[in-house]
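Minutes, project huddle
Topic: does the predicted pose make sense with coenzyme A bound?
PN asked that the exact inputs be recorded in the minutes so nobody has to dig through chat later. Recorded below.
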Amino acid sequence: MTRAAITAIAGYLPENIVTNFDLEKIIDTSDEWITTRTGIKERHLENDPKKATSDMAVEAVKLLCKKRGISPEEIDMLICGTVTPDLVFPSTSNLICAKVGAKNAWGYDLGAACSAFLFGLATGAQFIETGRYKKVVVVGADMMSRIIDYTDRTTCVIFGDGAGAVLLEPNEENLGVMDFILHADGNGMQHLHMKAGGSAMPPSHDTVNDKLHYVYQEGQAVFKHAVYNMAEVSASIMEKNHLSPNDVTWLAAHQANKRIIDATSQRMGIGPEKVMMNIERYGNTTAGTIPLLLWDYEKQLKKGDTIILSAFGGGFTWGAVYLKWAYDGSKTGK
Ligand SMILES: CC(C)(COP(=O)(O)OP(=O)(O)OC[C@H]1O[C@@H](n2cnc3c(N)ncnc32)[C@H](O)[C@@H]1OP(=O)(O)O)[C@@H](O)C(=O)NCCC(=O)NCCS
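Predicted holo structure (tokens), as shared on screen:
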């Protein structure tokens, strides 16, 4: 069977770094609280008001094409996972394609919050597996700083801005996306959403005055659901594919809170040496976290490595992907 393999990976982070100590100056918090409760030390936040989510994604896609030695015109399709699109319409995917010169691609945005990259990976893989396309780009990009209230200490410390992108191509060596389990439950909406700006509550002076165009999050409720579901789905995909902890080379889990990631790896029975982690430097970049993780760890990845990707996010949405890495990352990794 033809599988969809990741053949290149790239990312982009805005230059501006905001540390926990910087946040101490604007809200009632401390480096100690943020570090022990979340594992985050700093995050990248775009401070140029002219830049939007597509601009970060464009940098990642340009680097992706350069690394793989392809022209953007060779891309057949581009899926962009994001909750911070440049505009309600047209899609950020369209804008990225136009800006990078991917003239022969079509695509769309995928709204699954922190699980969007995994939903996009599973979706993009179908177009490769069926033989329809040869080059599908999956982007996870979010400029969370544009929808976060920097007077709300319970949410603003967690999030960061960033984008990652992967190229999917056909593989005949049984490497690539091997399996996935994905879930969605709209009842979770009550705990994590943005109240205004959509058709349910169009923007008005009142919605802006009441700060309803920012992320609304009930942290503890989200935490409980995330810990349980991310751990369970990660264990389920191992069981379904008869993978023991020894078979797993890496866990690449959504970077929302170190404690959630630790609970997931414990449930899977794997040690911390197999857990990819960059939350301390980037915070939660929503759809960006998993491709950014793979990008950071690319140098250490070997052909045939078994990687479990897992995520939990707003919606609620959650899931896991079982991936076999398709190339030696030591030559292309940073
Ligand atoms: C948001 C989160 C870090 C908060 O951590 P927590 O341990 O649940 O903290 P709580 O909400 O119970 O708050 C504990 C106390 O810390 C305080 N607190 C909250 N944010 C704080 C901050 N940034 N600095 C200092 N104190 C803070 C609270 O006010 C509360 O004080 P109180 O006990 O006097 O009322 C955690 O709930 C979390 O990570 N949730 C999941 C978020 C997530 O994954 N979101 C993305 C979707 S994937």
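Observations noted during the meeting:
- The chain is about 30% helix and 25% strand.
- The CA atoms of residues 282 and 313 lie 17 Å apart.
No decisions taken; revisit at the next huddle.
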